[in-house]
Amino acid sequence: MMDDKVVPELTVDDKLAELTIPENVANALLLVSNSSSLEKALEKLIKLAKEAGGRLDLSSKNVVTTVLRLCQSLSSTSYRDLLLLSLKVLRNLCAGEIRNQNEFLQQKGVEIVVDVITSVGFTPDPDCAIIQVALQLLGNYSVGGGERQCDVWHQLFPHKFLKIAGVRSREICDPLCMVIYTCCDGTDGLLTDLCSEQGFPILTEILRTASAVGLKEDWLKLILSKICIEGSYISLIFFKLHSYPSIENNGVRYVADQFVIEQSYLLSILSEILNERIEHIVVSHDFALSIFGILKSAAVVVDFSIRGKSGLPVGSAPIDVLGYSLTILRDICACDRLTSSMEESSKYVVDVLVSSGLIEFLLDLLRELEPPTTIRKAMKQDQIKEGTISSSFRCCPYQGFRRDIVAILGNCSYRRRHVQDEIRDKNGILLLLQQCVIDEDNPFLREWGIWCVRNLLEGNAENQGAVADLELQGTVDVPELAGLGLQVEVDPVTRRTRLVNVP
Q1: Which of 110, 202, 434, 439 could pair with 445 as two cysteines, CB 3.0-4.6 Å apart?
Q2: Residue 128: closest CA among 168, 101, 163, 157
Q3: In the chain, how long is the greatest CA-to-CA distance?
Q4: If DSSP codes are grouped into helix, strand and coil, which group holds residue 413?
């Protein structure tokens, strides 16, 4: 028998006099909350469900079922405030209380909530609060794992996820990432779905939204850490962010229109992840090699004729891609961990990068740069003029570019004899000694330079001998090098600088 429709005893201020809902739904909520109006009942239930004890107590009173039925009767946006309160009650009830989660599952709560989201629509200006709380509810529910994760996934993947991801709202993007992560966490099949041709558009749309509006929470970082840093999907996601197809030439991937801001945003997030959690992340070989490939691509398209006036980000996608690639490699080489893959477990990530030409590539970049500011200022004006230096040397495209190169070389050479030897064999010792100075365009260059030289010389008699054999010519005094027993000299013919022993 159908429930009779009645008008609940609500106050005029509630503006709900014309709302009809099942009588037993209204009465049940008023009774369980000891309230005189439906709005007050929901507000009280929200507060009760914030506490674990309150959630447990309400789990024995079928509140989840009752509120779900209320949601079904509030499909009209005319009752938006009451619908929002109902979703908040359900969100709080499903936060860590398995009994409420089970009741939500039995009553097909996901289907009801997805209908609510769909009824709001995905217009350019949707009701973000309704979608936000609905997604928070689904995230809390899917934390229960197993059947709950699949329940949410099968209702939303891929089309509804994609539509939600296209809404340019931080308030929606954060809980959407929460739902996706909690569904995939510990569920390999769903993670495989996310990294498929159907899933990649969702990820790229999330990144476009996040790059436009920013994020407050770490859910996107957790997703990217799992599929990019620990997984093998960085290249696919990175190049799908560009609207033009990529072209591969001699092992380096290029893009028809350089790079876009979404790509630099992705790398900035990955750099943050490594900087914050490097001790807890297992870096895959594929990730490291892909970042090296991206670095080489960016080095081709960046304009090195203009000296950067600020640190990262500078707002130029190619320069930011170049810079974040370097900071990522710096942190990878600072804490080299074995990957979890059995095939990769015999080789360290740094060794894989070195065998792929990282050291030679970085030394070449460094050689082409203009001298650090300390050395430039110490030189005679008739030797090198600021107005003509860019015709002979490259400038640092952002403040810190030279420092980041030196940092990677220093981290790679730490207690790695084969890297120390390679740098010597490629005539890199003198070049790196020149970096032990203060540079206005590269904060902390001196500290990174000394760290690098220390690592090059530690336990390596050949490298120590190479430094001892430096010959004196006309020298320039740089006090910062006194602690190393070195000084700068300028070759009168080539006008390039090098460091020699203090006589």
Answers
A1: 439
A2: 168
A3: 104
A4: coil
pLDDT at 231 over 60: yes
Measured between alpha carbons, how far is residue 461 from residues 193, 364, 426, 432 in Å?
A: 54, 25, 17, 17
Dihedrals phi, psi of 175, to nearest 5 degrees? -70, -25
pLDDT for 12 equals 36
Is the CB of residue 249 less than 8 Å from the CB of residue 301?
no
Strand partners, 498: 489
Write the single-letter amino acid at 459: G
Strands 486-490 and 252-255: unpaired
Burial (CB < 10 A; 0-12, 13-18, 19+), residue 152, is: buried
The pTM of the full predicted model, rounded to 2 decimals, is 0.85
Q: Kindly report the number of other CB atoms within 10 A of residue 472's CB atom.
A: 11
DSSP string across 165-194 = HTS--HHHHHHHHHHHHHHHTT-HHHHHHH
Band of residue 17 on the pLDDT scale cut at 50, 70, 90: very low
- Within 8 A by CB and 6+ apart from 311, the residues are 398, 399, 400, 443
CA angle 386/388/394 to nearest 5° reads 90
- Alpha-carbon gap, residue 314 to 319, rounded angstroms: 7
In contact, 230 and 281? CB cutoff 8 Å: yes
C-alpha distance across the termini of the chain, in Å = 104
Rounded-to-integer distance, Cα 384 and Cα 467, Å: 26
Among 268-282, 340-354, 415-429, the range scoring the smallest mean pLDDT is 340-354
pLDDT value for 24: 84
Distance, in Å, from the CA atom of 91 to the CA atom of 10, rounded to the nearest integer, reads 24
Contacts of 410 (CB under 8 A, 6+ apart): 448, 449, 451, 452, 455
Token pair 């197809």 is found at 245
Mapping DSSP onto H, E and C, the string for 400-458 reads CHHHHHHHHHHHHCCCCHHHHHHHHHCCCHHHHHCCCCCCCCCCCHHHHHHHHHHHHHC
* Residue appearing with tokens 């790229």: 204
Work out the average pLDDT over 61-67: 96
Q: What size, in residues, is the chain?
A: 503
356-391 as b/e: b if 16+ CB within 10 A: bebbebbbebbeebbbbebbbebbeeeebeeeeeee
Residues 296 and 359: beta-carbon distance below 8 Å: no
- In angstroms, the CA 348 to CA 390 distance is 39
Q: Using CA atoms, how far apart are residues 359 and 410, in angstroms rounded to an integer?
A: 11
d(CA 241, CA 317): 12
Q: Cα(263)–Cα(313) distance, rounded to whole angstroms?
A: 12
List the Cα angle 24/25/26 in 5-degree steps.
95
User: How many angstroms from the chain centroid is the CA of residue 234?
Assistant: 11
